[in-house]
Amino acid sequence: MIVKVTLAAALLAGGVGLMAPIALAASGTDTCAATPTSATPTDCKPPVRTRGGALPGADEAVARALRLVGSHGYYQLCARLAANIWGRPRAGYLSAAEQWHEMVTTNHAHPSDRQPPAGALVFWATGGPYGHVAVYVGNGRIVSNDIGDAVAGEGGVYLVDFGLIESQWGATYLGWASPIYSTT
Predict the structure, then answer these.
(1) Percentage of the chain exceeding pLDDT 90
(2) In a domain, 127, yes or no
(3) What is the SS3 assignment for 14-27?
(4) Which residues have C-beta within 8 Å of that of residue 91, sequence separation ≥ 6?
(5) What residues make up the domain containing 126?
(6) What pLDDT is recorded for position 53?
(7) Considering the entire predicted model, what is its pTM?
(8) How many domains would you assign to the chain?
Protein backbone atom coordinates (compact mmCIF):
# COMPACT_ATOMS: atom_id res chain seq x y z
CA MET A 1 0.00 0.00 0.00
CA ILE A 2 1.67 3.21 -1.13
CA VAL A 3 0.67 6.52 0.43
CA LYS A 4 2.00 10.00 0.18
CA VAL A 5 4.46 11.24 2.80
CA THR A 6 1.88 13.72 4.05
CA LEU A 7 -0.61 10.95 4.85
CA ALA A 8 2.01 8.93 6.75
CA ALA A 9 3.13 12.03 8.64
CA ALA A 10 -0.48 12.87 9.48
CA LEU A 11 -1.08 9.37 10.82
CA LEU A 12 2.00 9.57 13.02
CA ALA A 13 1.29 13.10 14.19
CA GLY A 14 -2.37 12.31 14.72
CA GLY A 15 -1.69 10.06 17.67
CA VAL A 16 -1.49 6.76 15.78
CA GLY A 17 1.95 6.39 17.36
CA LEU A 18 2.28 3.45 19.66
CA MET A 19 -1.28 2.19 19.23
CA ALA A 20 -1.20 1.48 15.49
CA PRO A 21 2.43 1.41 14.40
CA ILE A 22 3.51 2.08 10.87
CA ALA A 23 6.84 1.20 9.26
CA LEU A 24 7.97 3.94 6.92
CA ALA A 25 10.20 3.50 3.92
CA ALA A 26 10.77 5.89 1.04
CA SER A 27 9.94 4.85 -2.51
CA GLY A 28 10.78 7.68 -4.86
CA THR A 29 8.65 10.59 -3.72
CA ASP A 30 6.08 8.33 -2.05
CA THR A 31 6.28 6.65 1.32
CA CYS A 32 5.39 3.02 1.78
CA ALA A 33 3.46 2.05 4.87
CA ALA A 34 3.07 -1.42 6.28
CA THR A 35 1.17 -2.45 9.34
CA PRO A 36 2.29 -5.35 11.54
CA THR A 37 -0.18 -7.59 9.70
CA SER A 38 0.76 -6.65 6.13
CA ALA A 39 4.02 -6.93 4.25
CA THR A 40 5.96 -3.92 3.05
CA PRO A 41 5.47 -3.53 -0.72
CA THR A 42 8.39 -5.01 -2.66
CA ASP A 43 9.14 -1.74 -4.47
CA CYS A 44 9.69 0.14 -1.19
CA LYS A 45 13.14 1.33 -0.31
CA PRO A 46 14.37 2.27 3.17
CA PRO A 47 14.09 5.89 4.33
CA VAL A 48 16.63 8.15 2.70
CA ARG A 49 17.89 11.60 3.58
CA THR A 50 15.75 14.31 2.12
CA ARG A 51 16.43 18.00 1.64
CA GLY A 52 18.32 19.26 4.66
CA GLY A 53 19.43 15.75 5.62
CA ALA A 54 16.14 14.76 7.29
CA LEU A 55 14.63 11.29 7.34
CA PRO A 56 10.96 10.95 6.37
CA GLY A 57 8.88 11.05 9.55
CA ALA A 58 11.81 12.31 11.65
CA ASP A 59 9.99 15.38 12.97
CA GLU A 60 7.24 13.20 14.42
CA ALA A 61 9.72 10.66 15.79
CA VAL A 62 11.84 13.35 17.45
CA ALA A 63 8.72 14.92 18.98
CA ARG A 64 7.67 11.50 20.28
CA ALA A 65 11.19 10.90 21.65
CA LEU A 66 11.15 14.17 23.53
CA ARG A 67 7.70 13.38 24.98
CA LEU A 68 9.09 10.08 26.31
CA VAL A 69 11.93 11.83 28.19
CA GLY A 70 11.30 11.42 31.91
CA SER A 71 9.33 8.20 31.55
CA HIS A 72 10.44 4.86 33.02
CA GLY A 73 10.16 1.14 32.33
CA TYR A 74 12.78 0.75 29.61
CA TYR A 75 15.47 -0.98 31.68
CA GLN A 76 17.76 -2.74 29.19
CA LEU A 77 15.11 -2.21 26.49
CA CYS A 78 16.92 0.28 24.26
CA ALA A 79 15.79 -1.39 21.02
CA ARG A 80 12.17 -1.27 22.19
CA LEU A 81 12.52 2.41 23.15
CA ALA A 82 13.92 3.27 19.72
CA ALA A 83 11.15 1.27 18.04
CA ASN A 84 8.49 2.99 20.19
CA ILE A 85 9.93 6.36 19.20
CA TRP A 86 9.38 5.35 15.57
CA GLY A 87 5.82 4.17 16.30
CA ARG A 88 6.55 0.46 16.54
CA PRO A 89 5.53 -1.67 19.54
CA ARG A 90 8.82 -3.60 19.42
CA ALA A 91 12.05 -3.68 17.44
CA GLY A 92 11.69 -7.13 15.92
CA TYR A 93 15.32 -7.87 16.79
CA LEU A 94 16.65 -9.71 19.85
CA SER A 95 19.09 -6.89 20.57
CA ALA A 96 20.58 -3.65 19.35
CA ALA A 97 23.64 -5.65 18.28
CA GLU A 98 21.50 -7.90 16.09
CA GLN A 99 19.75 -4.86 14.60
CA TRP A 100 23.09 -3.19 13.81
CA HIS A 101 24.37 -6.41 12.24
CA GLU A 102 21.27 -6.55 10.03
CA MET A 103 21.73 -2.91 8.98
CA VAL A 104 25.37 -3.61 8.07
CA THR A 105 24.51 -6.83 6.23
CA THR A 106 21.79 -5.12 4.17
CA ASN A 107 23.94 -2.04 3.43
CA HIS A 108 21.69 0.31 5.43
CA ALA A 109 24.36 1.20 8.00
CA HIS A 110 26.59 4.26 8.05
CA PRO A 111 29.56 2.91 10.04
CA SER A 112 31.55 5.41 12.08
CA ASP A 113 29.56 8.35 10.65
CA ARG A 114 29.13 10.83 13.51
CA GLN A 115 26.82 13.10 11.53
CA PRO A 116 23.47 11.27 11.68
CA PRO A 117 20.30 13.03 10.58
CA ALA A 118 17.66 13.74 13.21
CA GLY A 119 15.62 10.62 13.89
CA ALA A 120 18.43 8.22 12.97
CA LEU A 121 19.12 5.17 15.09
CA VAL A 122 22.63 5.39 16.56
CA PHE A 123 24.43 2.24 17.72
CA TRP A 124 27.21 1.32 20.16
CA ALA A 125 29.08 -1.87 21.07
CA THR A 126 29.01 -2.14 24.86
CA GLY A 127 31.37 -5.05 25.43
CA GLY A 128 28.40 -7.37 26.05
CA PRO A 129 26.31 -9.34 23.57
CA TYR A 130 23.43 -6.85 23.29
CA GLY A 131 24.92 -3.46 22.37
CA HIS A 132 22.99 -0.22 22.63
CA VAL A 133 20.80 1.86 20.33
CA ALA A 134 19.38 5.34 20.85
CA VAL A 135 17.67 7.93 18.66
CA TYR A 136 19.52 11.03 17.52
CA VAL A 137 17.33 14.12 17.99
CA GLY A 138 19.72 16.75 16.64
CA ASN A 139 22.14 19.30 18.07
CA GLY A 140 24.50 16.61 19.37
CA ARG A 141 21.80 15.03 21.56
CA ILE A 142 20.16 11.61 21.78
CA VAL A 143 17.21 10.12 23.61
CA SER A 144 18.41 7.01 25.41
CA ASN A 145 17.42 4.75 28.26
CA ASP A 146 19.27 3.76 31.46
CA ILE A 147 22.14 6.27 31.09
CA GLY A 148 20.94 8.56 33.88
CA ASP A 149 19.34 6.02 36.22
CA ALA A 150 20.01 6.75 39.90
CA VAL A 151 18.80 3.25 40.76
CA ALA A 152 19.70 0.18 38.70
CA GLY A 153 16.66 -1.20 36.93
CA GLU A 154 14.82 2.11 36.78
CA GLY A 155 14.81 2.17 32.98
CA GLY A 156 14.52 5.92 32.70
CA VAL A 157 14.43 7.78 29.39
CA TYR A 158 16.86 10.69 29.08
CA LEU A 159 17.89 13.46 26.71
CA VAL A 160 21.69 13.42 26.82
CA ASP A 161 24.77 14.39 24.83
CA PHE A 162 25.66 12.03 21.98
CA GLY A 163 29.07 11.19 23.52
CA LEU A 164 27.78 10.27 26.98
CA ILE A 165 27.26 6.61 26.05
CA GLU A 166 30.97 6.37 25.26
CA SER A 167 32.28 8.42 28.18
CA GLN A 168 30.00 6.98 30.88
CA TRP A 169 29.65 3.38 29.70
CA GLY A 170 32.93 2.98 27.80
CA ALA A 171 30.95 1.90 24.73
CA THR A 172 32.33 2.05 21.18
CA TYR A 173 30.31 4.04 18.65
CA LEU A 174 29.43 1.92 15.61
CA GLY A 175 27.44 4.30 13.41
CA TRP A 176 23.87 5.11 12.46
CA ALA A 177 21.08 3.65 10.39
CA SER A 178 17.65 4.68 9.20
CA PRO A 179 14.75 3.26 11.21
CA ILE A 180 13.95 0.09 9.28
CA TYR A 181 11.70 -2.41 11.04
CA SER A 182 10.27 -5.74 9.98
CA THR A 183 6.53 -5.91 9.65
CA THR A 184 6.37 -9.52 10.86
Answers:
(1) 67
(2) yes
(3) HHHCCCCCCEEEEE
(4) 79, 80, 82, 83, 99, 181
(5) 52-177
(6) 60
(7) 0.72
(8) 1
